[in-house]
Amino acid sequence: MTFATHRFLFVRCAALACGWLLLAGLVRGEEPAAAIVLEPGDNPPPFVQLAPNEAPVVWDAQRVGEFKLVDQLDQPVTRESLLGQPWVANFVFARCSFQCPATCRKIMDLNNEVADVPVRFVTITVDPAHDTVPIMREFADIWKAKPDRWLFCTGEPKQVWDLIRKGFKVAAWENAGTARMPGMEFAHSNHLIHVSKDGEILGRYDSAVDSELVTLKRVLKGQITTPLKFQPATLDALAQFKARQAEAAIPADPLDKLPGWAKRLPATNAALNSLATLLLLAGFFAIKAGAVGLHKRMMLTAFFVSIIFLVCYLTYHYALHEYAGIRGKPFPGTGTLKTVYYTILISHVILAATVPVLAIITIRNGLRAYPEGLAPQQLAELVAERKTHHRWAKVTFPIWLYVSVTGVIIYWMLYHL
User: Fold this and answer.
1) DSSP output for 2-49
2) Which residues touch 351 (CB under 8 Å, ≥6 apart)?
3) In principle, which of 17, 60, 271, 415 could form an S-S bond with 233, CB 3.0–4.6 Å?
4) What is the distance between the alpha carbons of residues 143 and 121, in angstroms, rounded to a whole number?
């Protein structure tokens, strides 16, 4: 082989390698759908699981209904008796070995910290069948609870469970099977429920989270209003959240991040490919008609248009990476349509990588075979050059034409299907 042949083979292999790299970038351009995430300003509605093996429901408790309990002194405790002063409810059972004592310890500390605030604490048992008035009195004595400030309540089981499940809408149930162990006979919520002086439920706070207890203390002291994240869900808030969730479920189009000039480039590229196709066909028919000059002008113009296309194409993919963070627009179709698209795309990319090399060689040979300013007799002597040009043109033309046509097809499949 001659040096020129080796050089050509090297250039062709390099072009094919570039084509495969470009194709790999296009295939990787199909980014996975973004996960739905909450923004810092979003507040999802609170949920609660009221019973085991049940799906969580929205915590939308708004108002404490009528109820009748008794405290550690066997005095009646009703909704009416608690009106006129805000109060904080929590839930325990006397046999609890860890969770309930920890919650009561935090309530005792909170009670001391808001000693100057007119508020009452109401601790309600979730085990009314076992936790009688004497037992609740003993429990209250452990925490040095003063009845005018901190009530430990029990009552008729149905009354208690209706208040817990329907009034406060908090999680509580009796454990069974292997989950029922000494000190863990019941599972229940750790939340403290803040109730207004008018019996309206204002918020809930997890007693296991110290930062939430600090927030509750600030609310009780009147330093802040109840933050939205602690409030019961309202119909409006729930509707707004569902609307935001529905919007988030629809993946945002990364192409929306592109500036206006970049958004116009795909259509511009398709137009340039269409123009190159017309110029190639015009040049083909011109040479068939013997119009060498017109053929030369058409082919050179087609090459110039292809150069402009390449610049626009590279600029667009730079913009995709810079502004949208993707390598290419993913194909929206599925099934057979997707197979057809990628079949066209793969052949287009591989052949497109060869077009610059083939076009340059063919045009160079054409300019040598048909130089300007020579007499017809001199042109007739360039037989070998013309044969070389014709051989290259027979390879270059169909590939160049195929790449130009499929470029338009890919555009329509990608942006208009």
Assistant:
1) -HHHHHHHHHHHHHHHHHHHHHHHHHHT-PPPPPP---TT--PPPEE-
2) 19, 399, 402, 403
3) 60
4) 12
Per the annotation, where are the binding residues for Cu cation? 96, 100, 188
- Domain positions in the chain are 68-240, 254-416
Alpha helices in 126-209 (DSSP H): 133-142, 157-162
Which CATH number applies to 68-240?
3.40.30.10
**Rounded-to-integer distance, Cα 155 and Cα 71, Å:** 9
Helices within 370-416 (DSSP H only): 376-380, 383-416
Q: Which residues contact 162 (CB under 8 A, 6 or more apart)?
A: 67
Tell me, yes or no, if the pTM score tops 0.85: no
Cβ atoms 85, 198 nearer than 8 A: no
Q: Over range 400-410, report the average pLDDT.
A: 95
Q: How far is CA 222 from the centre of its chain?
A: 38
Under DSSP, is residue 95 helix (H, G, I), strand (E, B) or coil? coil
Please give the single-letter amino acid code of residue 332.
P
- Does domain 254-416 bear CATH number 1.20.120? yes
Helices (H) and strands (E) in the chain, counts: 13, 11
Indicate the DSSP class of residue 92.
Answer: E
Cβ density class 203-222: b for 16+ within 10 Å, e for less: bbbebeeeebbebbbebbee
* CA 24/CA 390 separation, integer angstroms: 34
Provide CB contacts within 8 A for 242, sequence distance 6+. Answer: none
Q: What is the torsional sign of CA 368, 370, 375, 379?
A: positive
Question: Judging by DSSP bridges, how do beta strands 186-188 and 172-174 pair with one another?
Answer: antiparallel
CA–CA separation, 222 and 274 (whole Å): 71
Query: Which tokens go with 82?
Result: 């608690």
Angle of helix 292-319 relative to helix 265-288, nearest 10 degrees, comes to: 160
- Token pair of 38 as six digits: 């909450």
Note the pLDDT tens digit of each residue in 253-272.
788 889 999 999 999 999 99
Is 379 within 8 Å of 370 (Cβ atoms)? yes
Query: Which residues contribute to the annotated binding site?
Result: 96, 100, 188
CA distance 96 to 183: 4
Q: pLDDT, tens digit, for every residue of 302-351?
A: 999 999 999 999 999 999 989 988 888 888 888 899 999 999 999 999 99
**Antiparallel, parallel or unpaired: β 57-58 and 120-125:** unpaired
